[in-house]
Amino acid sequence: MREGKTLEFKEDISNSFLKTVSAFANYGGGSILFGVSDEGEAVGLDDPLGKCLDIENKINDCLYPRPEYSLEVREADSVIDLKVEAGRFKPYLYESKAYKRSDSSTVEVDAVELTRLVLEGRNIDFEQLPADNQNLSFGHLGNAMREKLRLEAFDDDVLKVLGLLSVEGRYNNAATILADEGGLPGIDIARFGESINVVLRRVTSEGKSVLAELDEAVQVFEDLYCYEEVSGTTRRLVETVPKEAYREAVANAIVHRTWDVAARIRVSMFDDRIEVVSPGGLPAGISEEEYLSGMISIRRNPILANVFYRLGLVEAFGTGILRIKAAYAQSASKPRFSIRENSIAVTLPVLKADLGLSPDQQLVYDLLSPVRPMASGELHARVNFSRSKLGGILKELVAAGLVTTSGAGRGLKYRQGQP
């Protein structure tokens, strides 16, 4: 056994365990084992029944509100197992402070987290709170609703149905996110060159409806990752990264992000990939495994998610992860997902056909451009094997019809052919 997010060891009883009780009651529950060393060795307690009464009195006297818990004595080793349930009446405070688990440690929550706990205890989401600005317009949202749903009129009644306007005629934070004035953090897009020190393009989409920000993010993508390939009299649109996967990643970042922190969604674009980072980790009640499987979805911003669903921008049942994976079904490269406490990152690599190549052949093939011919000297500077081996690999790729050549002698250059 080892300590973790839902398990803590205590060799004896001191008031410090009450912080962990607060953390477990606020976030998902957990167990504290008394009579166990930091190394996970059972050392036992003298008079465990009396110690249970001591634990019970400390919790009842020092925690507010009183959390749900149970105590059990393991007779075999005189260890006390304190199980704390996740509570509904958050925040659970010890000495007027709320706590959470950070891996195997217990730490005090900050002001933002405390506000979230208060709202959760009242069964209120941030997006439901009254907007600071009550002078809002919805031109972009109205146009999108009329186009998608064929509405004849877009008025206050529609805004009330969407949950953006209360019966008293007041807008909430969800309305602010969708309004033309856009008073919350937006999307920061950067296209990098050979390193993050070289910024080729920078777009900060902010101060407008989040729907307009999504459209702008997609337009930047189309400019940089889509091109037309002409063959004879036909034109073929090529997406180096699946547009469906990109739109899904950005739309999900908008719908599931935390809106109560002053951080933008970050979209980092490179030659070989796009990274979309959303502020806020997983919502309470869903594990990383459940998130990645796409079999369960908990909506952090249900009002916003409902609007996006009505507009056809997301699916209702949280299938975003599955749709992103499906866009790469025929690709040798696959999307990656990184989940941290305060962010979720989705990496969308450039599509790669599964050509059955060796690792070295794949490396050389990936370095080649489908548009710009490259000399062998330029390629050699980017691989870690000899010129003769590189020449042999290029000959193999040319023979397989995967690489085409132009020029001759010292002017011989290579580019990707059509798989």
What class do helices, strands and sheet pairing give? Answer: alpha+beta
How far apart the termini lie comes to: 52 Å
- Rounded to an integer in angstroms, the radius of gyration calculated over CA atoms is 28 Å
- Whole-number count of domains: 4
What fraction of residues sit in β-strands?
15-25%
Major sheet strand order: 10-9-13-14-16-15
Please give a structural write-up:
Pfam families: HATPase_c_4, SLFN_AlbA_2. InterPro entries: RecG_C_sf, Schlafen_AlbA_2_dom, Schlafen_AlbA_2_dom_sf, WH-like_DNA-bd_sf, WH_DNA-bd_sf. It comes from Rubneribacter badeniensis. This is AAA family ATPase. By secondary structure, the chain is an alpha+beta fold. It has four domains: 115 residues, Schlafen, AAA domain (Methyltransferase, Cobalt-precorrin-4 Transmethylase, Domain 2, 2-Layer Sandwich), CATH 3.30.950; 51 residues, no CATH class; 163 residues, Heat Shock Protein 90, CATH 3.30.565; 58 residues, Orthogonal Bundle (Arc Repressor Mutant, subunit A), CATH 1.10.10.10. Helices cover 33% and strands 22% of the residues. The protein contains 14 helices and 19 strands. Helix 7 packs antiparallel against helix 8, helix 8 packs antiparallel against helix 11 and helix 12 packs across helix 14. The radius of gyration is 28 Å and the shape is flat. The two termini are 52 Å apart.
